[in-house]
Design a protein that fits this description.
The protein is mostly helical. Helices cover about 75% and strands about 0% of the residues. Helix 6 packs across helix 7 and helix 10 runs antiparallel to helix 11. The protein is globular and about 50 Å long. The relative contact order is 0.13.
Length: about 300
């Protein structure tokens, strides 16, 4: 059954998607080739942030339980993060204060990694999903900082270079790790490798796992070696966008009418995968267009 929180998560995401595409309609229509998905990078970050925000305002208790035990007033941080997510989503959608919002967004995800996911991974070193969470949010931080680096290229070229470099390395690392996970566990749903199995209605499920792993591996190596890096980042973004549309969105539609936790889980899978797509696409927008001009780092 659709809860109020689930409704507002889906509705918020839809509103920001429509608004983002409308605002960028001229850029989208003028884009060609790889530039078309790259143009949508900011929108693909804003929409998941808008989806996650209501979950922090009225969502499951596990959101509050993720706050480290040593931090006072855990309820406060839940609402603060919800407000931050909504503010960042609005900034990226209307294209105002993008440098500030993307810098702070990257910092927030980086703090999640340092305060929540890395301690969890170190406490459970054999849990592959714990490392997935850490690398996923680190890639989110890297994408946000790459966007901030792009926005500050004219005013702070050295800072911009390091922010984009950080984004390239962490997205490459996450992509390679995810690729290995797909090769080892192809029966799990492709994309960001989490606990969900590929649904039985998907034909040849293992084939899609291997295919996604191959794309992630080639693109991740290209990013790591700084070879055709713009196309490599865009390839990851296109892959994750396709998985959002053709796998996770149908899963969400089929979950409609199920239990509230099932719908909430499906919404989170859609948002997580689309956010990874957005991180890769904004990274692509920050990388050099001409391969001959790629800086050696």
């Amino acid at each position: 059954m659709l809860s109020a929180t689930n409704f507002w998560m889906g509705f918020s995401g839809l509103i920001y998607l429509v608004a983002g595409v409308f605002i960028l309609r001229k850029e989208i229509s003028a884009a060609r080739g790889w530039d078309t998905p790259i143009t949508l990078g900011c929108v693909f970050i804003a929409v998941p942030l808008a989806v996650f925000a209501p979950e922090h305002f009225r969502g499951p208790r596990f959101i509050q339980n993720m706050v480290p035990s040593w931090m006072p007033a855990p309820w406060f941080w839940k609402y603060l993060v919800g407000c931050a997510l909504l503010a960042a989503a609005t900034s990226l959608t209307v294209r105002k204060l993008v440098r500030l919002s993307s810098t702070l967004l990257g910092l927030m995800f980086f703090l999640f990694v340092c305060m929540i996911y890395i301690p969890s991974a170190l406490a459970h070193p054999n849990n592959r999903f714990a490392w997935t969470y850490a690398l996923r949010d680190l890639a989110f931080a890297g994408g946000a900082w790459a966007l901030a680096g792009l926005q500050s290229r004219a005013s702070s070229p050295q800072q911009s270079k390091w922010m984009i470099l950080f984004g390239r390395i962490v997205v490459a690392t996450a992509a390679i790790f995810f690729a290995v996970e797909h090769f080892l566990h192809p029966e799990f749903a492709p994309g960001v490798p989490l606990v969900k199995m590929t649904p039985p209605w998907v034909p040849f499920p293992s084939v899609w796992g291997y295919l996604a792993g191959a794309i992630l591996l080639v693109a991740g190596i290209g990013l790591a070696l700084n070879k055709q890096s713009r196309i490599a980042a865009a390839s990851i973004g296109v892959l994750m966008t396709a998985l959002t549309l053709f796998l996770y969105l149908p899963i969400l539609i089929l979950a409609n009418g199920g239990s509230t936790p099932e719908i909430n889980e499906a919404l989170n899978y859609v948002a997580d995968t689309l956010l990874f797509a957005g991180a890769a696409l904004v990274l692509a927008s920050a990388l050099p267009r001409d391969p001959d001009r790629v800086e050696k780092t």
